[in-house]
Write a structure and sequence with these properties.
The protein has nine helices and 14 strands. It starts with a strand and ends with a strand. The chain has helices spanning 22-30, 57-62, 88-91, 109-116, 121-125, 193-199, 216-221, 235-243, 269-274; strands spanning 2-7, 38-42, 48-51, 78-82, 102-107, 130-135, 138-141, 147-154, 170-177, 180-185, 204-208, 249-253, 277-279, 285-287. It is globular, with a radius of gyration of 18 Å. Strands 6-5-4-3-2-1-14 form a seven-stranded mixed beta sheet. Strands 7-8-9-10-11-12-13 form a seven-stranded mixed beta sheet. The structure holds D-malate, manganese (II) ion and zinc ion. Manganese (II) ion (MN) binds at residues 10-11, 87, 89, 254.
Length: 289
Amino acid sequence: MRVRILGTAAGGGLPQWNCGCRSCSRAAELGVARSQDCLAISGDGTSWYLVNASPDLRTQLLASPELRPAPGTRRTPLEGVLLTSAELDHTLGLLTLREAARLPIYATAAVHQALRQAFPIADVIGNYTQVRQEVIADRRLLAGGLVVEAVGVSDKRPRYARELPGTGWAVAYRFTGSGRRLVYAPCLPAWNDAFERIIDGADVVLLDGTFHTEDELTHASGSDRPARSMGHLPIRDALPEIARHPATRFLFTHLNNTNPLAHPDAPELADVHGAGAEIAAEGQVLVLG
Ligand code: MLT
Ligand code: MN
Ligand code: ZN
């Protein structure tokens, strides 16, 4: 199983175009940049799937040698897209994929519903490419021998879809290939027994690293939105849990631009490393098995 972490920032990216917070200002000054959350994964190194479709997708694809078309053709190694949610930072990149000959989209029924009703992007790009909306529930075998399981972690709807019913609005994916297991959970509201079951036996976990602390956004922007109220367990509260799982490699991703840990020289990194965890890097490649 091979993975390329295409983007490691939460919605807005780092720096965010309209944000002058300390972190964004420093990032602009020092040339630190993180693009929005997205992953490419393959069971055999030949057939690839995107997990989430970030607004930065075009640049991310062009920077990934594995995802280039075969010379002289328009044959892409991309077999489809799996969505962990219908949030805009995970779906706007679908527009970028409209040049594809066909576009299988795997997501929960709730997410598909949002992409047909409140944000009818599937219908819009259906005029350009052959969209196939596949409901993903439980286990599924994908091309290249990759097995994927979707497990619901949150029922927080995107702001544009507040009125829509249903459950399964944010999932974690558990991938198995070459006998190894990777969990991708860019949105995690709480570390509970259900999450323990999701990560049971995982070699690698890519985890929600949106905020370092519960009140980070209040300090940075004055907005009164604690991390947990936004469906994101702060990194500081995940670290003691991670320390209990020394056999598993944990990398934080989906970092908000206010998160000091988005910077390579953050003093707070000592605690992350002390717990045995890492901060995912842009373009980072993981090879399992
Ligand atoms: C989230 O991760 O909570 C959402 O993407 C938030 C947003 O962009 O509105
Ligand atoms: Mn997000
Ligand atoms: Zn900022």
